[in-house]
Design brief:
This protein is of the alpha+beta class. An 8-stranded antiparallel beta sheet has the order 11-17-16-15-14-13-12-18. The chain starts with 8 loop residues before the first helix and ends with a strand. The N terminus is likely disordered. The chain binds FE2/S2 (inorganic) cluster and fe (ii) ion (FE2).
């Protein structure tokens, strides 16, 4: 990947025009309109813009040396293993009889059969082709075809091991930049769901989005799609747009929408009683944690976006709550949470129809500032990692305003 070719569209527009007297967002809108109408842009500049748009479109990349959400812990029972593609790598995730989760590259070093096609006895994996065995660290422990006197150094046949951690019910995987097990830097930790300590989630939903990770993440932090995408009697039915004012602060590897009272309360939140306060944290690579609280109850929502391939992304939503009666009505909450996630997926499916034609995309004013921050955070993390220097958060304390 050439980082110089990954450009935040707003910054790119700014660089192209080089005019510091015009507001950056205005310039972007101007360029956007110009591209659509093909007016008012000098020919050479227009050609450059088109060329760069094509280059940028091909520069999808995944962040490395960072924790990704792998899967909900409850989906991996003791003694079970599952195959999963993560960042285009085949991964085996397994839980030993003792409950410990581990992950290995899902390719046998002998003749490449996926290890998940073999057997797992709760302790070791046995390849389904010639029976080679591997422990939870990926060490080869047995090659059945060998007879007495045929000594081999088994350490030559190790399978790559991934670091995994199970926290608050969720399994996370550290995707390093190379084949070695690289310990994560201490400050790059898994973001914690506040208030719920070591508790697990009460509800989980997963959906497959047919897109590159960036489109799913940008949708996750898009504040103004709600009246159009999430139109439902239990959320906001035929909503009237109102102005919202949201204060933001930089926070570790991301930003935080500071705690404030919700202005436009979705109907379903009414079950918590009173007008809830909300705080929303975004953390690289693709994690959003919302904490909703009223005087009596707290609900947290972790939404994590995991790239499977360049064209498939998994979005997982988990809910935590402290109201016992919410557990009692879980059969009602579950389909609503499902419908909400499906609405986000369905609009991404439609977006793919347009993206096939490589259009230039726009980031407009305050409503798209979080998306702009995402691209800036991602680029800065990639550059800092490549240069071996500390990450410098590009987000500054800001108040954003939009109508939704
Ligand atoms: S391919 Fe796995 S043991 Fe031969
Ligand atoms: Fe949404």
């Amino acid at each position: 990947m050439n980082l110089d070719n990954f450009i935040d569209p707003e910054k790119w527009a700014f660089q192209q025009w080089g005019d510091t007297t015009v507001d950056r967002c205005d310039k972007l809108e101007y360029i956007g309109k110009s591209l659509l109408k093909m007016v008012e842009v000098p020919t050479t500049a227009f050609d450059q813009l088109q060329k760069r748009a094509t280059v940028t479109e091909n520069k999808n990349f995944f962040l490395r040396n960072i924790w990704y959400y792998a899967l909900p812990g409850s989906r991996l029972k003791p003694g079970a293993m599952i195959a999963k593609t993560l960042l285009a790598e085949p991964v085996l995730l397994a839980r030993s009889i003792s409950g410990k989760v581990f992950a290995l590259r899902d390719i046998c070093p002998h003749r490449a059969v996926p290890l998940t096609c073999g057997r797992f006895d709760g302790h070791e994996i046995e390849c389904g082709y010639h029976g080679w065995r591997f422990d939870h660290t990926g060490r080869c422990t047995a090659i059945p075809s060998l007879v007495e006197g045929q000594d081999l150094d088994f350490s030559r046949f190790c399978v790559k091991q991934y670091l995994v951690r199970e926290v608050q019910g969720n399994i996370w995987i550290y995707m390093a930049a190379d084949d070695k097990v690289v310990p994560p830097s201490p400050e790059m930790d898994i973001p914690e769901i506040p208030y719920f300590g070591s508790q697990s989630y009460k509800l989980v939903q997963t959906a497959l989005f047919p897109c590159f990770i960036d489109h799913a993440v940008v949708g996750l932090m898009d504040p103004t799609h709600s009246p159009y995408v999430h139109r439902a009697w239990w959320w906001r039915e035929n909503p009237k747009l109102v102005e919202e004012v949201k204060p933001f602060d930089p926070s570790p590897y991301g930003f935080t929408m500071r705690r404030h009272q919700i202005v436009n309360v979705p109907r379903v939140y009414g079950i918590l009683g009173g007008v809830p306060e909300t705080e929303i944290v975004f953390h690289l690579p693709s994690i959003r944690i919302e904490r909703l609280s009223t005087e009596r109850y707290t609900v947290c929502n972790l939404t994590a976006v995991t790239p499977l391939t360049e064209t498939e992304t998994e979005v997982t939503t988990t809910l935590y709550w402290d109201a016992p009666w919410l557990t009692a009505i879980k059969p009602i909450i579950q389909p609503l949470a499902r419908a909400f996630l499906n609405q986000d997926r369905d609009v991404v499916v439609k977006q793919q129809l347009g993206l096939k034609h490589n259009p230039t995309l726009l980031l407009i004013k305050d409503a798209d500032t979080q998306a702009r921050w995402y691209y800036q955070l991602k680029a800065e993390f990639a550059r800092a990692t490549a240069e071996g220097r500390p990450f410098v958060n590009p987000v500054k304390e800001t108040v954003l305003r939009w109508q939704c």
